[in-house]
Each structure stands twice: as structure tokens, then as C-alpha cells.
Predict the 3D structure of the following.
Amino acid sequence: MSRIDVHKTYKLYIGGKFPRTESGRYYPLNDKKGNFIANMCLSSRKDFRNAVVIARKAQSSWAGATALNRGQILYRIAEMLEGRRVQFIAEIMKEGATKKEAETEVDASIDRLVYYAGWSDKYQQVFSAVNPVASSHFNFSNLEPMGVVAIMAPEEQGLLGLVSVVAPAIVGGNTVIILASETNPLSAISFAEVLNSSDVPGGVVNILTGNVNELHTHMASHMDVNAVIYCGKDENVISEINALASENLKRTILHKKSDWASNVCESPYFIEKTQEVKTTWHPTKV
Amino acid sequence: MIPNLDNLPTYDTVGVNERINRFKSRSIKKGAKVVGLKLALSMIDLTTLEGKDTRGKVEQLCYKAMHPHDTLKDIPTVAAICVYPTYVGVAKKALEGSRIQVASVATAFPSGNSPLQVKLDDTRFAVAQGADEIDMVISRGEFLSGNYQYVFDEIAAVKEACGKAHLKVILETGELDTLDNVRKASEIAMYAGADFIKTSTGKIQPAATMEVTYVMFDAIKDFYLKTGKMIGMKPAGGISTSKIALQYLVMLNEVLGEKWMNKDYFRFGASSLANDVLMQLVKAETGRYQSANYFSKD
């Protein structure tokens, strides 16, 4: 008798656990030839709401961890990903990429994590300043994480795109809720398994799968979300996000690129995008 | 007189859980949810019972009780403020002109391990300061050693010391171990003169659970059928979200019925529940999930 394959159930990643969507809905994922690959959770606004509560709880202690520690954890993610390189390449190929494309994407993802791990205790020095002022004050500016960041990941390059927007947000002390690519979601959920074995505290990174058009209004309007990142080109979605985000002065960050492999997709300015500048006036010579 | 405790019904945990899972499965949405949330808000005993309480904290809590969230129209105030006896005077003054009651814990809360005379003095002091309601604790040690008469007499004596103030009797179910004990303690408290029975002090885990609340509802129902007297119920501790509060209200409605669905016969002892209810009400009005940053701390 031939052996029956054991297929993986792709679930969500919320608060360090792998729950199914509370809605019980799913969508089938097919490869380019139309062959069935897996059923993916079709997350609801309530999954997002639950994830925000958990991300909020996790935020202060994550931001309170030392920069060195956050860097170590990012490096640890890279190590774990390296160890499962073959699995990720196979998964990305299932979604239609060639072997070469898949290898390039996984390698670039690992390198990008190492890149941001290195920046963990350096970006503060680049973006902070002692400011000249015309009064008897010692005036200085430094960065603080914005808090909870909702991310709609790029549709292309399910792994590299996701890593490229998540790593700079978390290295700066934010916690994130990501809606993974709808058409390339496999490696996003497998990446959650990597996170789960890399000392990333539960709740710091939460990953949902589903449909952008269903969730973007909720991600943009949630009052307890401090910044929203949208990676895509749909002008209607962009204008709705901008309008809703203005209600609680959420920062909106838009990425319209479609190739995340290039060097311009890694820079300390990606970290700075989800940071708030705090300027302090300290009286002197009194 | 102390009731006969030999013929009380006994409770099977599996059966009780089955029943509770059904209450939890009721779907309450939209308009019904808003009505339920407002009802829950009106039943809250906004509570601060900490060693670090100050006059300022109590005054702030009283302000919160009177003005839960001023940008929301048509919402009720909470039912009462619950404080230690030393802050009853402060609360009474801060709440002047409102219809919010002042409840005070008494009788050597939370352990209850003091001589009866001390407990009675504690109670009389709180009443003299103007407390409308007294939350007493039973002597769990005496109860667990089978000295039911002692527990009964103590409650009766405190009831007398309360005068016109309403008496809530805290069973501290987290220390009573079994549901049958909860039922027994409920009987003793009701026959001894309690106006309300209450699950917990909030200082012991587990605090209020739906299981013990169900058993206490059951006791209240039987007492009503026997004597015609309606006793109130107050689960306290651990009820921090609107979702859980609505599940309690479903259970209240289905076990005791509509007559109990008001603040005269049902209260939530809670501190963080009020803000969660308010956040849900604003969500219902605006369609936006809310952040605690935009609600006053309590």
C-alpha cells in the first residue's frame, strides 16, 4: 500500500499561538496550473481585533527590551530561517516561482533579517540629535516606537516582502499585525513557525491570512493602531486608508514597489518610518 | 433560624458546565447588544479595594461613576461605588446629589478573621459614615469546619448592625472548594437575612465564575419559591470584558428571569469592566474599534 501524504494545515499566528480564524471561513489556494495546494484561513475583522488587543499588551515589554536583545532575537530569526531554507524554497516554488527565484528570495530574506539585526542599536544614533536653540535649554530629539502597527504585506514575494516590512518595524520596538499576501501566503505562515522558535515574545508579530479588500478599512480605522502600512497600488484602497487613518492621526506608510530584492528596500529609513520623534527641552543655566 | 442543610440539591460539575456552555452560545448582536451593555453598565459596583487607595483615587472614581463617558448620550451611571469603610465619607460627599449608592466592605474584609465585636464595630462605623450597602465576608474557617450555626449567627448579628443599609454577604467561593458548599453557604446567608449574596472578595483566585454564580442563582430561585422573598446576586472579581458580562446577563435572564434584570437585584463587582463596556458602546455607535487611550482611567 502506498503511503498517504500528510499535508500541513495553514492556520493563523496570534499571540504566539496558531489558532484558526474565529469566523470558520477559508479560501482554497491553487498553483498556477489550477491544482489545489491548501485551504487558507480567511480572517475576519474580529481576528484582527483580537490580534490588536494582544499586540497592544505585548508592546510595552517589547519596546522595553534592550536594543541589543531585540537585535539578538532578529538574528535568531535569521538563523532559524537559514536552517529551514530548503522547506521555504520548496514552498515558494509551489506558489509558482522558479527554483532560482525561490532561492534568491529566501536568501535575501535571511540577509535582510541580519541587516536589521545589525541596525538594532545603531539607528537611534543616526536619527537622534542635540538641537541648537536660542534659549537656556538643553534640547534633544530621540526616537520612540509608534506602538502597534498594522501591515498589509506585499502581494508579490510572500516571504521577502513580508520580512522587508516587518523586520524594520519590530527592530524599533513596535508590535505588528500583518495581513499576509493573499496569493502567496504559504511562506508567511511557515515564517510564523520560525518566529515561534526564535525567542520572539508572543504577540510581537501576529500574522493573518485573508483578503485586503475586506480588512483594510478595519486596519485603517482601529483607534488602537498607531500606524498602518499598505504595500500595493490600488488607489481606492489607498484613499480609503488615508481617510480612515486620519481619525486618530495614524501614520500611513505606502509602498508601491513590486520588487523587494533590490538594495533600496533595506535602509535605516525603513526603521525611522515607524518611529515617533520626541523632543525634550531641559532648562539649563538657571 | 438556620435552615435544614441536609436535603439540599447537590451539583454535578459536568452538568453545570453543560448548562453554562449553552448560556455562552447565545448570540447577542446590534441593538440587543447595546441594550445589554447599557444594562450591564447600570449594574456595576465600581470598586477600589486596595491598600494604596487614597482620598484622591476615591474622588476620581466617584467622578467616573457619575460621568462614565460624557460624549456618549443616553447612558446610565453605574449603580454604586464600593470602597473600604475609611473612604465611605469621602465617597458620600463626592457623590452628593447623584443617585449612586455607596457600598462599603466591612467585617475585617477580606479575611474576616477578627472577633465578632470588631466586625460589628467595623459595620456600624461604615453605616454611620453613610454607607447605603454593606459587603460582609463570612467566616470561611468556621464554615469549612462545619460550624454553620456560628456563620449564621454572625451574619444575623451583622444584619442587625446594618440597620437600614442593605447587606451583601460575600461567600468567597474560591475558598469553599465545592459547588455543594457554595449552595450550603448561600442558604445560610439568605436565611440569616442577606439582601444580596456575593461570590468573592476579588482577593482570592478563582473569583467569580459562571459555575458558582449558577449555583447561587439556583439557591436564590428556590428561596424565592419557598419564601416569596427576592434576594439579589453580585458576582465579583474577574469579570473584565463586555462579552463575559453579557453571558452573565443571559444566565440571569434564563435562570431567575426578568424580575431580577435590574440593579436592585443584580450587580457586577468590577473595576475594569466599566471601561470595556464603554468602549463597546462607542464601537457600536461609531463602527470603530476603540483604544483605552481615549477613555478616562478608573
Remarks:
- Chain A has one domain: 26-259+270-283.
- The first strand of chain A starts at residue 26 and ends at 30.
- Chain A is about 45% helix and 20% strand.
